[in-house]
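Researcher: Please predict.
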Amino acid sequence: MATCTLDDLRDQVAAALARAGAGATMARSTAKALVLAEAQGLASHGLGRVAQYATHLRNGRVDGNAVAEVTKSKGAAAIVDAHDGLAFPACDLAIAEAIRRAGEFGIAIVGVVDSHHAGVIVDHLRAVGDAGMVGLGFANSPAAMPAAGGRHAIFGTNPVAAIFPRRSGDAAAAEGRRAPLLIDLSLSEVARGKLMVAAKAGQPIPLGWALDAAGEPTTDPQAGMAGSMLPIGAASSPKGAMLALVVELLVSALIGASFGFEASSFFVDEGNRPRIGQTFIVIDPDALAGREHFLDRLEVLIAEMQSDAGVRLPGARREALLRRAEREGIAVADALLASLRG
């Protein structure tokens, strides 16, 4: 086990992706996102993804030379085409466009098409929070969950994310600011990456996470990855599957990306270019009740939430881990470091 600084890890990840065929901008943007995820304790979306992305680059499932661009624009709406590259530079461009357009129009929606796995969706929204705006993010992914009442995978785990910036002030954190509220959840009972982590560790998964290829409940993570994930609340309600349907349409039919069932799994080396999508909505509080009113009322709500002992604000644990990683670095297994360097 070795302890690495975040800068060192970003350099190593970027170099690994560049060796696999990613252009400089794509490699650096992706490395930044993966190391950020690892620093927040999100191993399923962190360094463990490097080998997967590198394999997709080498096998042609990703175009390492792709350059994202705005291909359609109308007022507060735009489309960014990732051109089959890794998702991160395209999402960077989409967020920048959404912030600019929200500043002009009060609200903006920007979709990313012909894209790939986008990592931790709420992390794309951090720039929105830094701009003092509210952000929403949605993504689809290769089919992993059945429709309500169904048995075969149609929808991806289809994450939903939101960021709500807070006012800086005398009660701010030691870094001189209050961390924003960071809300990020997949619509499966758990993120599919947790099955990947359990499979690598040779550990079982709880019943209620996944079905095998025959549509039966399983505790075997490999069988679950070959089968389908269960939507949140699937044991008692179709609500999770309905939310997954909403996200699927927001990032496919509405903006022009592929459906999840049309994309090969991220967890196989060979397959098609997934061409899935991401959709970002950015809102300027000044266009509605006003920035000061928003910030004041948000603190009133947070104070009420925290009047109950044990309430933890969304994103607080991630932020604490990130601050510690920035100070102390990240402990990385020797085998994983060797994989990066190889």
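Model: Residues 87-105 form the longest helix (19 residues).
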